[in-house]
Amino acid sequence: MAIGPSSRGTLSRQVLADHVYDELMVAFMDGRLEADEALNIDSLARDLEISQTPIREALARLESTGLVIRTALKGYRVAPLFSLEEVVELMNARQLIEPENAFLACSRSTDALVAQLEQTIVDLDRSSEQADSVATIRPYWQADERFHRLIAESTGNRFLLAAYTALGGHVQRFRLFGGLGVSDAGPAIAEHTRVLDAFKAGDADAARAGMDEHICGVRTRAVADAAGEH
Fold first, then answer.
1. 180 and 116 both lie in a single domain
2. Between the CA of residue 170 and those of 34, 45, 91, 137, 147, what are the distances in Å?
3. Residue 12: helix, strand or coil by DSSP?
4. Is the domain of 160 the same as that of 91?
5. Residues 102 and 186 in one domain
6. Which of 27, 55, 78 is the endpoint of a domain?
7. How far apart are CA 44 and CA 169, in angstroms?
8. Which residue intervals of 66-203 are DSSP H helices?
9. Closest by Cα among 191, 206, 203, 199 to 111
10. Domain with 48 in it: what CATH number?
11. Please, which residues bridge with residue 76 across strands?
12. Could you give the strand order of the β-sheet that contains 75-78, starting from the edge strand earlier in sequence?
């Protein structure tokens, strides 16, 4: 796999690790990294023109999401693709966690958080017009994931944030259906907007209900994608 070099400059090690994490995430979705492919740390460091340390940090984070697997004496490999049944199980797990995240985050929301969530929807809408292939999916995925992560980070509960991160829910679905591009931008944006409206109103119960509806919708659309109904 070839991925572009980082703009190193004075970037911190954490920023570099975040860059590697994002690059690998996109490579999982667009097929440059295939299921069960070996991940060579030396090669990744050369491709990105950075040291091995941020590579190792990014791979450790990805291991916690189940997107990569580490085997003793063999190193890291790309995890197998989820089946549709596993994606549905994943969405069921997200439905247990993320509505509660929305309730808690809304209960302690700030004007700054509302503004950040609103910006993710603006970015989602803007990027959806171009996210019709794996080559243009990155901005859409990043805006989508940022919406959910902001909410998880705002719960005030580090364990709920860790649970959200460990699920790796966004990428697993894109990996399975990545060849379709983005097939559900309109419904997803409308669902995000309903959650945002609840945050603006300070209605934690509505935020919970809106997130529950959103995750249910994503699961339903995943099944439809698998059936070729997109």
1. yes
2. 17, 26, 10, 12, 11
3. coil
4. yes
5. yes
6. 78
7. 24
8. 84-107, 111-128, 138-153, 158-167, 169-177, 185-201
9. 199
10. 1.10.10.10
11. 39, 70
12. 38-39, 75-78, 68-71
Query: What CATH number is associated with residue 189?
Result: 1.20.120.530
Residue (of 20, 24, 21, 26) closest to 8 by Cα position:
20
Question: CB-based contacts of 19: which residues, under 8 Å, 6+ apart?
Answer: 6, 11, 48, 54
pLDDT recorded at residue 150: 97
The b-or-e profile of 112-138 (16+ CB within 10 A means b, else e) is ebeebbbebbebbbebbeebeebebbb
Q: Which residues pair with 77 in a beta bridge?
A: 38, 69
Is 150 in the same domain as 56? no
Q: Judge if 112 and 187 occupy the same domain.
A: yes
Question: Do residues 198 and 206 make contact, with C-beta atoms less than 8 angstroms apart?
Answer: yes
Domain that holds residue 41: 13-78
Answer yes or no: is 6 within a domain: no
**Residue 39 main-chain phi, psi, to 5 deg:** -110, 105
At what angle are helices 138-153 and 13-30 packed, to 10 degrees? Answer: 130
pLDDT < 70 positions in the chain: 1-11, 130-136, 168-183, 228-230
Per-residue model confidence (pLDDT) at position 153: 96
Domain boundary (62, 78, 94) is at 78
Q: Rounded CA gap, 79 and 136, in Å?
A: 23
Predicted pLDDT at 176: 60
Query: Phi and psi for 171 in degrees, rounded to 5?
Result: -70, -35
Distance from C-alpha of 62 to C-alpha of 65, rounded to nearest angstrom: 5
